[in-house]
């Protein structure tokens, strides 16, 4: 049954590339303000699913809506209501910090007054007051990632898609990054996060675990650990990846 506060809904969403099925009839819902983890090993189909939900790739079959818009017919409306941060750094390294903020703010439709106030607020929140004229390419990776995330929510979108956002950063920076995610969720923004770090599942309200293009488990981290009698999410994923039979 569909819930009224769902902002992402899929039903048997499938993507084929020739004979290869990248995502195989995935069905799930994401609620408003939720931190929803989309977990799985590299190649499990996470990024393919995210690209369909962002309106960047057309499904082969199935149904899906994002922020109330259809992924087949209303991709431009979807793009206007979401933020996106790719697993590969998404800002321009040959522009300064402030130039990147203003450039993407303009793309997101902010006017000059909004750009000024949002830029000042973002720079102060990240502690980058002395770095605004520095090229983004000169910043440490952790700061680049935090800046990219902050820019992706600059326009207060309904949903933000984060594709492997903490890949390649150290554990301390990962925790700082997740603090930004929690802060965005507290403002009512829905966070859809793909990751292959099983420990990051503990930070999510609910998680979906992808194995070979299919959703093999869906629930809160605690629910899945109880269901499979495991103490860690690594153990849960290990069982699922090897086709362990789940309890009803």
TrEMBL record:
Keywords of the record: ATP-binding, Nucleotide-binding
Record carries keyword ATP-binding: yes
Gene3D superfamilies found in the cross-reference section: P-loop containing nucleotide triphosphate hydrolases
Alphabetical list of SMART domains matching this protein: AAA
Presence of keyword Hydrolase: no
Domain ABC transporter intervals: 8-237
Organism field: Parapedobacter pyrenivorans
Protein name per its UniProtKB record: ABC transporter domain-containing protein
Stored InterPro entries: AAA+_ATPase, ABC_transporter-like_ATP-bd, P-loop_NTPase
One example GO MF annotation: ATP hydrolysis activity
């Amino acid at each position: 049954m569909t819930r009224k506060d769902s902002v992402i809904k899929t039903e048997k969403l499938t993507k084929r590339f020739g004979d290869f099925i990248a995502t195989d009839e995935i069905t799930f819902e994401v609620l408003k303000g939720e931190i929803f983890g989309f977990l799985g090993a590299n190649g499990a189909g996470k990024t393919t699913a995210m690209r369909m939900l962002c309106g960047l790739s057309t499904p082969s079959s199935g149904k899906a809506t994002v922020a109330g818009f259809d992924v087949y017919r209303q991709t431009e409306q979807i793009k206007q209501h979401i933020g996106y941060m790719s697993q590969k750094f998404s800002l321009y390294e040959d522009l300064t910090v402030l130039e990147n903020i203003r450039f993407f703010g303009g793309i997101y439709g902010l006017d000059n007054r909004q750009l000024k106030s949002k830029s000042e607020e973002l720079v102060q929140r990240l502690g980058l007051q002395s770095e605004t004229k520095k090229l983004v390419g000169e910043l440490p990776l952790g700061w680049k990632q935090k800046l990219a995330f902050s820019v992706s929510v600059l326009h207060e979108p309904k949903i933000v898609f984060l594709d492997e956002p903490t890949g390649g950063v150290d554990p301390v920076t990962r925790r700082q990054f997740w603090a930004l995610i929690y802060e965005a969720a507290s403002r009512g923004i829905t966070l859809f996060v793909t990751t292959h770090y099983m420990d990051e599942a503990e930070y999510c309200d609910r998680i979906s675990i992808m194995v070979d293009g299919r959703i093999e488990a869906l629930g809160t981290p605690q629910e899945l650990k109880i269901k499979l009698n495991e103490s860690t999410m690594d153990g849960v994923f290990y069982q699922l990846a090897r086709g362990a039979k789940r309890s009803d």
